[in-house]
Each structure stands twice: as C-alpha cells, then as structure tokens.
Design goal:
Helix content: 10-25%
Radius of gyration: 22 Å
Structural class: alpha/beta
Mean pLDDT: 93
Low-confidence stretches: none
Number of strands: 20
Number of helices: 8
Shape: elongated
Strand order of the largest sheet: 5-2-1-9-20
Strand content: 25-35%
Bound molecules: NADP nicotinamide-adenine-dinucleotide phosphate
Order of helices and strands: EHEEEHEEEEEEHEHEHEHEEEEEEEHH
CATH class of the largest domain: Alpha Beta
Number of domains: 2
CATH topology of the largest domain: FAD/NAD(P)-binding domain
Distance between the termini: 17 Å
Largest sheet: 5 strands, parallel
CATH superfamily of the largest domain: FAD/NAD(P)-binding domain
Amino acid sequence: MMSEQNMRVVIIGGGPAALTAAIYSSRANLDTTVIAGYQSGGQLMLTSDVENFPGFPEGIMGPELMDGMRRQAERFGSKFVDADATKVDFSGRVKRVFVEDDVYEGEAVIVATGASAMWLNLASEERLRGRGVSSCATCDGFFFRGKEIAVVGGGDSALEEALFLTKFATKVILLHRRDKFRASKIMQERVFNHPKIEVVVDTAIDEILGENKVEGVRVQNLKTGETREINLEGVFVAIGHRPNTDIFKGWLDMNDKGYLSVVNESETNIKGVFVAGDVYDYRYRQAITAAASGCKASLDAEHYLEALTGEPAEILTAQNW
Ligand code: NAP
C-alpha cells in the first residue's frame, strides 16, 4: 500500500497560486516539487509596492512578498526547480512533467503557470515599466492620484481600468486603435459618458516619452497618419493577457483564448490534474485570489490523493491505468 507520505505533487508555476499550493501541499506532508520557471515569482516580480495584500499595512514589494511565500514553502520541505516545464505527459495515473530531459513525476499535478500581460513592444515602454508604465490599474492606480494618464485598449479590461482609474486621475485618455470596441455595451456607455474620460479612437502609441519617468506619449492617427504629442504621467497598457498554456494543448481543455477550463472547482478534465490562479481565472487576476485558488487546488489534490492511498503501490506506479 502507498502511504500519503509517498504521494508526490508536482506544481507547475512560480507565482502566488503555485507558492500557496506548495505551502499547503508540503505542510500536508506530501512530497512537493515546484517547477517554478525561470521567472520564479510570476507577474508580481514586475510590480513595485503591493498595497492590497492583507496583512501588510504598510505595503510590501512584490518580489519580497514572493520571496517570503517561497521561503515559507521551503520551510515545509517543498523542493524548487528554477526552470520552465517544457512538456507534460498526463496519460497515466502517475503524471510526468518534463524540464528538457529531466522528468518529475507526481500522483497529482497542480497547474499554476499564470498569464502574461501583453505589451505594445516599444523600447520606451519597457524602459519606463514601473516608472509610469503599468499593466495593472488595481495594483498601481493609487500612485496616479491627481495626474493625467492614458489607458490603451478597447476590450473590457481597458474600459474597466479606465473607469477604475477615474478614482485617482484627474483625466483618463482611452486610446484605442480602431473605432469599434470589443468591450460590452454597458461598459462602453459608462466610459463614453464619463466626464473624466476622453476617448480617442483609430489611434496608436508610437512612443512613450520621458527619460526616467513618463512625461507624455506620441500618438498616431491610423486613418490620417497624423502624429501628435500628449503630455501625461502614466500609461496603462490593457490589451489583454495570454495564458501560459502552450504545453498543455492536447491534454487539458481550454477556451478559445487558451485559458484552462475546470470541471469542478479546481479539477480539470484529467483526474489528478488541478489548476490554480490566472491560468484559468481571467476575471479577478489578483495575488490574493490566485493565492486562494492555490490553497483550494492543494486541498482538492490532497483529497484526491487520500482516496488513492488505499490502492496497491504497483498499480499506482504503473504508467497507463
Ligand atoms: P480583449 O477583449 O482581447 O481586448 C484586447 C483589446 O486590446 C482589443 O480592443 C484590441 O484591439 C486591443 N489590442 C490588442 N493588441 C493591441 C496592440 N498591440 N496595440 C493596441 N491595441 C491592442 O482582452 P481583455 O479586455 O483583456 O478581455 C479578455 C477577456 O476577459 C474578455 O473575454 C473580456 O470580456 C473578459 N473580461 C471581462 C471583464 C468583466 O466582465 N468585468 C473584465 C475584464 C475582462 P482590437 O479590438 O482592435 O483587436
């Protein structure tokens, strides 16, 4: 018979969802390996002050929060691999996760590979990230109190961020490359009628201006070709996120945008494979909601493994059952 201590969990991902899952799994005495990726820490490594994670009244730096979560998981025995998972094989009850030629096996796998914000891919945007350029209004909006800013995009995210940012900014310019919006009609109505929001259509950002902080943008009207400069102090890029799910294609069900689908809470279409965080939750995308779903995925994995402990070891370790 296998005991629960023999049970192995492989967690793929390095953000708050993965690290919270690791804390819970290793604390439940499961043999826990985290394939944390080259950019261990996830999207929070790109933010500065996190002021809305409960328990830190003065705020905490994103990387520091992630480092704390990781050390907490290591304290209970989680092992870390700082490389990207390159392939998976979920055909047997023992799941296999590959990092190039190395194989990590687990009776359960938690997928928490997150999503990456899409960027405009301008050199000035990269240089000024965290210095006025952001991809997260909830995280950084507070720093733009009393300032004029721009939001880029025409989907629900961009319009939602524009509305949210009116709480802080004196003026929000919504820049969209077309004159049709993907966002829901109700969001469009709210944005178009908001006294603090100016909507500028058919327009793309050519360059973000400023040496060490954002001082303006140079934009181009895509219909007339005309360019002009606008003085402002912040640029929020809200042109969508891309879930990191390429290696799961053919194994896990996903929607047309690549976000993983769940059949029940954190369970996927494959027994023993669970999900947590932004890789399936495109709605909330917060560190705290990702952490909460990491906790749930770990508890679900634990229950699943408990049910397996009655099974004979040779069946458990056999590849195709
Ligand atoms: P999205 O719907 O894919 O919209 C992305 C927007 O960014 C589009 O307007 C697109 O322009 C623009 N864009 C893409 N690449 C660009 C580029 N390189 N330069 C300039 N503009 C670019 O993404 P999303 O707004 O993040 O929404 C994702 C999903 O989450 C959607 O299903 C949405 O409904 C949902 N969501 C729901 C809520 C809510 O219900 N409260 C909130 C947020 C998101 P084009 O239109 O020209 O392609």
